[in-house]
Hints:
By secondary structure, the protein is an all-alpha fold. It is built from three helices and no strands.
Amino acid sequence: xHAPSLPPGQRRVxxxxxxxxxxxxxxxxxDLTTLLGLRPQTLRxxxxxxxxxxxxxxPP
Length: 60
C-alpha cells in the first residue's frame, strides 16, 4: 500500500495491519498495540487519522 504523505506512526500502523491481513489474520487493536508497542489511545489516534484520510474503516 502506497501512502507517501503519512506520518511515520500512521504508516507503521497501516503497514502492520496490512501485513497481518495478508497473512490471513484479522488484526485486533490488542494485536496492533502489542506488535507495535503502542498504548491503546495512541493506536486509536492513528486509526482515527487513517480513517479521516480514507485509508481504513472507523475504529471499533
